[in-house]
């Protein structure tokens, strides 16, 4: 597969360079990152409403091509998460939706953040109007995102447990919680589920669960 799509056909679909910037009203970037057993690559799972990821144009189902200018096709889930976290409070992800991904695969091309047709989308911040950074392809941003357009998620910190001082007696009809003991397998990377926070309620929640995995 060619890695130099310098002469793109006019009908070549545009990848999106999503510049995510953390905002004080939201914890993390607001997206889940997961791998799929049936196809290679790292994919965007749930994108939280009002999050930096949504405001930077990320969509559920997008495949990540680059993280901060580096192609991550041969990297593991853990390596991609580390790349996203390497730059404090912001990250740039080159992503393609399924149709765009299929087009580049069919034409044996690899999208790059430096090609001319890339759509640059940035999380709006208070200082957005003071100075607009120039994207890697050297062109001015094609979109200024004011509307909410649908990440490895910036994984939320483990919540602190609030221990009750006394153990209350449960009524007989109390539903049973589940204690899930997960053990990693040698032929599967990770536990196979995504963790996310929801803006409208407290706590941490399990998102997408991969097929035939430890969890």
UniProtKB/TrEMBL annotation:
Pfam families: PDZ. SUPFAM superfamilies: PDZ domain-like. The keyword Lyase does not apply. GO terms for molecular function: protein-membrane adaptor activity. Residues 17-99 form the PDZ domain. GO terms for cellular component: apical plasma membrane. Transmembrane segments: none annotated. Residues 115-181 are annotated as: Disordered. It comes from the Eukaryota. Gene3D superfamilies: 2.30.42.10. It comes from Amblyomma triste (Neotropical tick). This is Putative na+/h+ exchange regulatory cofactor nhe-rf2. Keywords: Repeat. PANTHER family: GH04176P-RELATED, PDZ DOMAIN CONTAINING PROTEIN. PROSITE patterns: PDZ. GO terms for biological process: protein localization to plasma membrane.
């Amino acid at each position: 597969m060619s890695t130099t799509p310098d002469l793109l056909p006019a009908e070549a679909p545009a990848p999106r360079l999503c510049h995510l910037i953390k905002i004080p009203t939201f914890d993390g970037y607001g997206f889940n990152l997961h791998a799929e057993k049936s196809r290679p690559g790292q994919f965007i799972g749930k994108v939280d409403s009002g999050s930096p990821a949504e405001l930077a144009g990320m969509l559920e189902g997008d495949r990540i091509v680059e993280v901060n200018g580096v192609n991550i096709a041969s990297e593991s889930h853990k390596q991609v998460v580390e790349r996203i976290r390497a730059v404090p409070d912001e990250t740039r992800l080159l992503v393609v939706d399924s149709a765009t991904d299929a087009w580049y695969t069919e034409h044996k091309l690899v999208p790059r953040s430096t090609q001319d047709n890339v759509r640059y989308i940035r999380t709006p911040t208070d200082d957005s109007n003071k100075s607009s950074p120039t994207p890697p392809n050297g062109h001015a941003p094609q979109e200024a995102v004011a509307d909410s357009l649908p990440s490895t998620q910036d994984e939320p910190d483990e919540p602190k447990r609030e221990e009750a001082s006394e153990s209350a007696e449960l009524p007989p009809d109390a539903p049973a919680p589940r204690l899930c003991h997960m053990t990693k397998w040698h032929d599967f990377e990770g536990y196979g589920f995504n963790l996310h926070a929801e803006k409208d309620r407290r706590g941490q929640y399990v998102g997408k669960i991969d097929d035939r995995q430890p969890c």
